[in-house]
What does this fold into?
Amino acid sequence: MTATPVTHDPADVHHDDHDHPPPSHSSSRHPWGIIGIYTFIISEIALFGSFFMAYFIIRVIGAVDYAEWQEAFAQAIPLEIALINTAILLSSSIWIWFAERGFKQGNKRALVFWLSMTILFGSVFLGIQIYEYAELVTHKDIGPSSNAFSSVFFMITGLHGSHVLVGLILLGMLLVRAVKGRYELGTHPPQGFMASVIYWHFVDVVWIVVLTTLYLL
Amino acid sequence: MSTTTTSTAPAARGAGHGTPGPRYVGGLIGFLIGYAVSHLLLRLFQGWGGVDPSYTVVEAAGIGAGLGPIIVGLMGGVPGLVAGLFGRRVILGSNIFAAWLWAVVGFLITTLIVIGVRLAFGMDPISLLPIVTFGSLGAYLGMTIGIGALGPWLRFLAGGDVDLAGDHSQHGAKSWKDYFGFNTDHKVIGIQYIVFNFMAMAIGGMYALFMRAELAQSGMQFMDGSTYNGAFTVHGSVMLFFWIIPIFAGIGNYVIPLMVGAADMAFPRLNGLSFWTLVAAFLTSVAAILVGMYEAGWTAYAPLSTQSEIGLQQLLFALTVQFVGASSIMTAVNFIVTIVGMRAPGMTMWRMPLFVWANLTTSFLVVLGTPFIGGAQLMVLTDLTMNTQFFNPILGGDPLAYQHVFWFYSHPAVYIMMLPGFGIVSDVITTHARKTIFGYKALAISTVAIGFLGFAVWAHHMFTSGMPDWFRVVMMFLTMLIAVPTGVKVLSWTATLWQGRIHMRTPMLFVLGFLFMFTVGGVTGIMLAAVPFTIHVHDSYFVVAHFHYVLFGGSTMTAFAGIYHWYPKITGRMYDERLGKMHFWGLFITQNLVFFPMHWTGVQGMVRRYADHPERFDTINMVMSIGAIVMAAVTLIFFYNMVNSWRRGPKATGNPWNSHTLEWQVSSPPPLFNFYDVPRVLDEPYPFGAAEPVHGVVAEKGKRTADHPILAGSGAGTSQEQQG
It folds into this structure.
């Protein structure tokens, strides 16, 4: 939809019912859907920001010793699991890049395969996350209500997990459309496709921040 | 879709499908079922929530015992009646009755799912708060499907062959009934917003009257403390969430696409969904009022709001905030993309009308800020439902964390409430003073500067909450700094008036009134920024006076100015100038009568949010209460003027104020898709006093913009010389 040339079909303009808009004009180099998704991502960053803000306030001036919690948490969840999980999620960003390339090259098989791989890796990530939760709750007796830090841990990872879930639903939608052949392959992908891809990359980037603040720092 | 359904429904009754007998029986049964179900649900939730079943807001207002449950019963009964009468046509159609029915269905389905999941995990299956949390999400989904907002999207999600951008089947209103359904036309949505917001304002105002009635004398008149808490909480949150913030979204919705020369907003369906999300938020809020009022103040500070005694109401309040926030963010994203991506050729950033500048800045504030109140209330929500410990100091939480996160939104929020008003003032003042705005760039840049600074001053709401001293000093300094860009604005507006030909029409009167009121509010704002002074008057009526001067004398007055200014454009009729002036003078005098004495009582020690006050404040409080009643009466003049002029007022021309911005260059009300061809912008937006003042040209019906005499003569249209 980049700067659609204003086509002047007099028949269009003279239409008396006026039941369709005038030819659209874009004042931006970027398609509207892409501006929209980036704007939306700004607000998503702010949403995560609100939880990180609470986290750091609790950590700096809260009454419970952070080092104590960190030790208990490290014993409960080996860091290796989180790192493997990170690798799984981040690699899915590469797979979706392959899918995008397949789209542009007009290769439907590559598009479908790499989209499926992305969804698979995203689902495995969620599965491991749920395993972590189950491990914490059932074996180590750490739940969302144990203390402020466990609340923060469950909320932030849960918030991120729900974003992964939304991303998976979006990618599943793309997959359905790709399989049904709704896309005109070999061209630049449409806005909806690109918006979902951007969203997925965003979910991955947020995970790096979550990993750094909650697991590493 | 909604058009056909709603408009054919009455016709079907006349056409006589089937015999009338069974249909009326069906209607009766539907009514009884709907009445009984909603009545039972109310009792059930009141019982679960531990609320005294007789305690509902209507009774608290003294209107009469038992009326509340009857209203709730009718809320179920009327849709049941309509569904019984018209059957499939309504249930499967896209209209408010279907929305209501599917909301109930969505609620029940999610409730069953929650109960099932809890059974599967071996938990107590019936738990009120999780059921309400997920149930309201299900109800929201059902409502949006029932209203017809999601149809094409759902088909698209399922892989259907849907042309989302080219679908105009739900665009435009053909009769008044279409205003009660889902629409993608920004003009229809704008009117829906504005009418809805005025209704909310009336409700919020009613609660203010309850408070003034209680405060008229010392001692307790007709409320208990808890009811009073509910009254100020409902007043505050309804006024902020459903009046001041969305009224500018409503005016912007109508005006912004016209101003930038676009046929609609960037995402019309999302735009409609924003409005209906706001309605969902309002209904959630009403539900909270009906099961017993939420009482923790509009700020809903933890740990007060996380106490389980008022858990159900606070949970519904938290959900209200989520819905309001979602609605605001969707609208803001839409505004940003519309303004960035849909400006007419030739409209550079420095040729945008100042209302567009204000809206762009506000939208960025919403996008960046609103998630913080969402996050804060999400923490309250999980504290209530999952027993998380964000604000419990014993287990490492910190109540101050709530205040920090909350005010990180809520201070920018005061600029979300104020900046669009500034934009309206700029547009109105230059038009009615017949003079180019003084300092266009200064006004635009100061708007953005206020937006930036707004994020750096949140802790000035917390000077008495316990903070390091150095932090208070930083916050005090930054807060006072905001007076600089604001002062630039007031100066520019005043300088615009200088040597202008001022037409004292109603919108101009409101703007002049705004200038006075806002300056007073701004000065008390500087006083409140000073830490030693704030420590003395914190949580006193001085603060109440300050923010009513800013929010009533500021925001609300500008909203009225905008409504009067664009009334001819929106309705195609002129309002009654005499009634408009009566409205202004009545409102101006009474608001000073009500709010000015609060400065004095506050400094003298009358405390905010108390249901009672010492006897020595009796006389002055009686004066304020009388002022409030007169103010309500004056507002009735406004409503009468609006409704009556819409029906009988003289027809308005396309450009009654001789303005130059694009929205005035089309007919009143504008054509279905605003413009017959993409307009062309040639020059700055306010070329008053120029020899041949032109901001932009639009095509007439059946013609092209390029055929316009101005463009046809001079080729591409070179800009003309201006004088200031």
